[in-house]
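Form P-L/3: holo structure prediction, ligand sodium ion.
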Amino acid sequence: YAQVADAKKALKTDAFRLHYQPKIRLATKEVIGYEALIRWQHPEKGLLMPGAFLPPIERHPDVAIELGNWVLDNALEQIERWNEVGLDTTVSVNVSALQLTSSDFEETLNKHLQKHPAAEPCQLEIEILETDALSDIERVSKIIRNCRLSSVRFALDDFGTGYSSLAYLKQLPIDTLKIDQGFVHDSLNNAQDQELLKLIISLGRVYNIDVLAEGVETPAHAELLHTYGCRYAQGYAFARPMPADDVLDWHSNWI
Ligand code: G
Ligand code: G
Ligand code: MN
Ligand code: NA
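OUTPUT (holo model):
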């Protein structure tokens, strides 16, 4: 568990970072918000991606939740900083099923919101991860409803990959569904993937939920999705995730 001990130390020494990737409205190409993605600035190993350090941490719920709280705190602080310089946007954070269903999530979220009064709750969106680990859908639904009372928004991440995403779509009061990049990647020359995309986009329409496509790597992907009626997108076609300090410059140079 060397890495988990290391992660605890990293929390104390402020070695984690959030990088930000813009989310784009396809019709106008305007930025509608940013997704916060965690990185670890490791003293010896350099900048680590979540795949390299989150899995072992997630086997230690106390550490995982502490890290999740750090993410919330840091993202809200970033919103405040951006508000101060006139960048009025939203930030999405990734929240694991474990954190969302921990006994005091609503209370913790409200405490964080109170700690950052210059960030409007509606500027925060929570992306729910690992939907297949959400066993008690009634309870999750209630947690989301309660958090939405303070105007925080919710997205279902990696839509289509959890084994019961359709039931979640029906039962969870979410604002956005994010189409997993796996459905987008080959869509330019795969007719079946194209049909699947159209299906997910029309599901969004039926349930009155915004649809955002992930992994949009080229203008051709963006064009195809726009043609299908998908409103929002995120991916390398627009920008890679970038350090918070680069966002202001990138934002002001974007169209
Ligand atoms: O850029 P990318 O390698 O950042 O992210 C890989 C995966 O890590 C994604 O599935 C993403 O949801 C997850 N991830 C990124 N940031 C966070 C975070 O702050 N908390 C959690 N729990 N997962 C994250
Ligand atoms: O939370 P989530 O699973 O959605 O995390 C998004 C992941 O996808 C992150 O690892 C991010 O760096 C990555 N990503 C973002 N845009 C693109 C893209 O256009 N192509 C690919 N292959 N990965 C992307
Ligand atoms: Mn995400
Ligand atoms: Na995703």
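COMMENT: The first strand starts at residue 16 and ends at 25.
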